[in-house]
């Protein structure tokens, strides 16, 4: 439904987005995760045809957004970071205008506006001026505007930014509801949002794709298919062989060594608890067991570890390398 | 076409939703009225003097030539002041508030957006002209001015206004800041106004050139009641050219944005 190939956008010497590629299938909710200034908005603006890419191409609903902008735009609904409302129009006037320019046929336009207002729960504000709306309502009017022409693709730039918790939950529910009929790309810098709403996530930082997977897989991959961190005092002996012999262990790697203490990352088969056996191995070899903990990372940590430049986190957590080569 | 109309309607509505339309129309009507009264008073005194001194003098006074024509010339000055207020927000405001993102991501061509905005502003100008006709209607009650020269003068005003609107639109498309847009537009209008000044002492070629370029000079004939195709073509091509520049400006914005 959406195909992005080697997208690059430069502003003079500044590169906002570099060589970004991904595909989004029909009906999917696709998350765009990254800190502020990562290039999320730029990518979305290219997808919506607001700005042209420097290199690469974007195909939305089968149309190249640069070569056939009108066709692509007809099938795209877009909610920019700040909802593009006209302050001096009422909600109905505004949606009528948007419906007209988005090509909603005049027959049934009224009905469509009514449906959309009900769906986004703004019908009680129908005659209110846009300038008098609260932040939550503005956002919903923005969403109504994006879906008014029933587009195949919905592009939402930080749809929950600035909303209160209740509104955030409502908006997420609404987005999930919409997913059936629309393919959705949404950007956010709030992690739980991605985990809760998106089927797949692309993490983007400084204009580069850092990782692309389902939220579950991202966590699992970083958890390293059940990776344990074990720190032992072996009096200088190598413990790799001993740990590898433990049933269920798939890989052992030394991760740090200081003052005779050695840290190992031990991967095991998914769902198999090897802690007891590992402890026994340490004890039977007469070593000292100093630390044993599962390496688990929430999306939040993934996000941080992927997007923070200076990673002061000690070696155990730096599973970063794996993902960068994605 | 329906897209153009939708945008033109939205533009016109937004003028009336803000105080702009009322202030612009009000000030225009007020000053138009003042010019009208002043010129009328002068005209009345002149014609009374004429009829006192020589019987046939009264006939020599022509209401079209001596009242409507100077009035129209004065009105062109009004356009100079009023039009920047009309056009300064057209693009600037959309850029500042981010609604430009809505327009540029909707299935619209740049041409449709620009034409819509142009026609919206032009519609406001038509309304202003209609309001000014009230003054002239009074004239018709007491005198018998020729209708056709008047119609030609109004056609001239419409085209002149169109030129100013296109320039204003272009300048507004260059900046996010309304004040900058307004001031620059005013300066450019003023320059287009006085461009002929350098002609008088810069030799015949320059003189001819600036006289041709001067927006105001082309209005003269309309004021007299002459519709010369040269002038119509001048105005129409002026508008087309500046709207073309606007399209380029909007398009280039996309690459820089």
Biggest interface, chains and residue tallies: A-B, 31 and 27 residues
Number of strands of chain B: 0
Compute the number of helices of chain A.
12
Q: Order of helices and strands of chain A, N to C?
A: EEEHEEHEHHHEHEHEEHEHEEHEHH
Measured on Cα atoms, how large is the radius of gyration of chain B? 20 Å
Please compute the radius of gyration of chain A using only Cα atoms: 25 Å
Uncertain segments of chain A are: 309-326
- Measured distance between first and last alpha carbons of chain B: 28 Å
Overall geometry of chain A comes to elongated
| CATH architecture tag of the largest domain in chain A | 3-Layer(aba) Sandwich
The major beta sheet of chain A can be summarized as: 6 strands, mixed
Structural category of chain B is mainly alpha
> In total, how many domains does the architecture of chain B comprise?
1
Assembly state: heterodimer
Low-confidence runs of chain B (pLDDT<50, min 5 residues)? none
CATH class of the largest domain in chain A: Alpha Beta
Report strand % of chain A.
25-35%
The CATH superfamily of the largest domain in chain A is identified as P-loop containing nucleotide triphosphate hydrolases
């Amino acid at each position: 439904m959406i195909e992005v190939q080697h997208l690059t956008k430069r502003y003079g010497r500044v590169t906002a987005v570099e060589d970004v590629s991904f595909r989004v299938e029909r009906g999917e909710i696709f998350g765009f995760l990254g800190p502020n200034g990562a290039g999320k908005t730029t990518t979305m603006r290219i997808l919506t045809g607001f700005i042209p890419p420097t290199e690469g191409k974007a195909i939305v609903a089968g149309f190249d957004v640069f070569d056939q902008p009108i066709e692509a735009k007809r099938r795209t609904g877009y909610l920019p970071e700040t909802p593009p409302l006209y302050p001096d129009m009422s909600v109905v006037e505004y949606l009528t205008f948007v419906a007209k320019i988005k090509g909603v046929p005049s027959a049934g336009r009224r009905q469509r506006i009514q449906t959309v207002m009900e769906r986004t729960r703004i019908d009680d504000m129908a005659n209110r001026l846009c300038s008098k709306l609260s932040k939550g309502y503005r956002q919903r009017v923005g969403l109504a505007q994006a879906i008014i022409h029933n587009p195949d693709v919905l592009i939402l730039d930080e749809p929950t930014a600035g909303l209160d918790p209740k509104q955030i939950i409502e908006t997420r529910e609404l987005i999930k509801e919409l997913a059936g009929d629309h393919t959705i790309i949404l950007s956010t810098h709030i992690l739980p949002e991605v985990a809760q709403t998106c089927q797949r996530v692309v993490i983007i930082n400084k204009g580069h794709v850092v990782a692309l997977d389902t939220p579950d897989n991202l966590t699992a991959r970083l958890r390293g298919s059940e990776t344990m961190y074990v720190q032992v005092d072996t009096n200088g002996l190598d413990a790799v062989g001993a740990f590898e012999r433990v049933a269920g262990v798939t890989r052992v790697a030394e991760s740090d060594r200081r003052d005779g203490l050695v840290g190992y990352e031990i991967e095991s088969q998914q769902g198999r608890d090897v802690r007891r056996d590992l402890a026994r191995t340490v004890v039977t070899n007469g070593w000292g067991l100093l630390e044993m903990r599962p390496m688990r990372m929430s999306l939040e940590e993934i996000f941080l570890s992927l997007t923070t430049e200076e990673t002061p986190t000690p070696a155990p957590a730096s599973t970063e390398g794996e993902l960068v080569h994605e | 076409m329906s897209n153009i109309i939708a945008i033109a309607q939205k533009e016109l509505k937004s003028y009336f939703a803000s105080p702009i339309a009322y202030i612009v129309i009000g000030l225009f009507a007020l000053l138009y009225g003042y010019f009208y009264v002043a010129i009328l008073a002068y005209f009345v005194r002149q014609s009374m003097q004429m009829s006192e001194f020589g019987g046939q003098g009264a006939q020599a006074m022509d209401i079209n030539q001596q009242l409507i024509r100077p009035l129209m010339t004065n009105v062109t000055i009004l356009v100079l002041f009023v039009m920047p207020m009309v056009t300064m927000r057209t693009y600037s405001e959309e850029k500042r508030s981010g609604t430009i993102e809505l327009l540029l991501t909707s299935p619209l061509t740049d041409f449709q957006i620009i034409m819509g905005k142009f026609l919206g502003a032009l519609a406001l100008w038509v309304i202003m002209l209609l309001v000014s006709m009230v003054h002239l209607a009074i004239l018709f009650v007491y005198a018998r001015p020729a209708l056709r020269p008047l119609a030609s003068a109004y056609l001239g005003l419409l085209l002149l206004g169109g030129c100013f609107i296109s320039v204003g639109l272009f300048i507004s498309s260059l900046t996010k800041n309304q004040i900058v847009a307004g001031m620059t537009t005013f300066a450019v209008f003023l320059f287009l106004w006085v461009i002929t000044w350098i002609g008088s002492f810069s030799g015949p070629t320059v003189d001819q050139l600036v006289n041709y370029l001067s927006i105001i000079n082309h209005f003269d004939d309309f004021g007299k009641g002459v519709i010369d195709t040269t002038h119509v073509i001048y105005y129409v091509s002026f508008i087309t050219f500046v709207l073309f520049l606007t399209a380029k400006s909007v398009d280039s914005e996309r690459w820089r944005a």
